[in-house]
Amino acid sequence: MQQIDNILIAVDRDGSRVALAKAIAIARLFGARLELFLCDAESAYEQKHQYDPRSAALARDSSLFGGREYLESLWRSFSAVDVPVTIDVACETPLYEGIMHKLKRSASQLIVRGASGREGRVFGASDWDLAQSCPVPLLLTKGRLWEPRPVIAAAVDLSSEESPALTHSILGLAKEFADAGRGTLEVLHAGHFYEPETLALHRAKLEQRAREAGVAPSALHLIDGEPAVALTEFAATSHYDLMVLGALTHRKALTALLGTLTGRLIDTIESDFLLVKPAARSCKAERIADRPMAASPAA
Fold first, then answer.
1. Which residues in the chain belong to E strands, given as ranges?
2. Residue 1: its pLDDT value, please?
3. Element (H, E) at 144
4. What is the pLDDT of residue 108?
5. What pLDDT digit, counting tens, does each position of 118-148 carry?
6. Domains within the chain, CATH numbers bracketed
7. With contact defined as beta carbons under 8 Å apart, do 24 and 83 qualify?
8. Rounded to whole angstroms, how far apart are CA atoms 22 and 10?
9. Per-residue pLDDT, 221
10. 113 closest CA partner among 4, 274, 279
11. Are the CB atoms for 187 and 171 separated by under 8 Å?
12. 274 touches 243 (CB < 8 A)
């Protein structure tokens, strides 16, 4: 797995503090730098419907200036003098495309997004669009503090339709987070195991995948039942700090299952979620000169 040394925090007005607080904590675990980014998609949408080009240009300039002021104020409200950060703003719509354009100008190996709306629990349509299109892992956080030694869960699918590369990516990244936080890693696999022979075959396959990813097969959980129900119920009682699982797939046969499973887990469980693609890599792109900003103590 590629080392995490650069993290992109894509904030908005509602979920900003949730996302930034968790990103700072993760940056400290990995010794990473942060890229704090705000894309004003609402203003960009309004500007597209402006008849006067001069008014649209003025509105865009105002959006960019106000966005940067907001991010600088937000950063100053955190005491994170030990974490290097750059700040960037954009005015693009739709939101997920603005975030993807920023990622292409970045060298980030991880994106962090915070929940907003009702009690900081809601992720919007742009987050799911981002999950489908983003080539790097996407961490969705509800803001709950992790334990000093976090408990990480990696949920994997062993069906013949699932790529072994995705399982390897999930297990490898989950292990990175567990090792960085000096925490523990549990591997979860749910399905129907009608016969002892079926259960034994699945266990042997799961142990093999774990060994291939460098994960000790000492904390494997095979959970009997429909994955969308059994895995949700098991995880809800286990108090995981982070769940790592495959991002939404483009394969039509699995879209409904993974959409239901991911959505139910996020709605039901208070943990953070890390959505992974096979062989996740950071986008290759030219860096842009984001203006570095020194961290300031909280007021």
1. 6-11, 33-39, 85-90, 110-114, 138-141, 151-155, 184-191, 220-224, 242-246, 272-276, 291-292
2. 57
3. none
4. 96
5. 445 678 888 888 888 899 999 999 988 999 9
6. 6-136+282-292 (3.40.50.620), 151-276 (3.40.50.620)
7. yes
8. 12
9. 93
10. 274
11. yes
12. yes
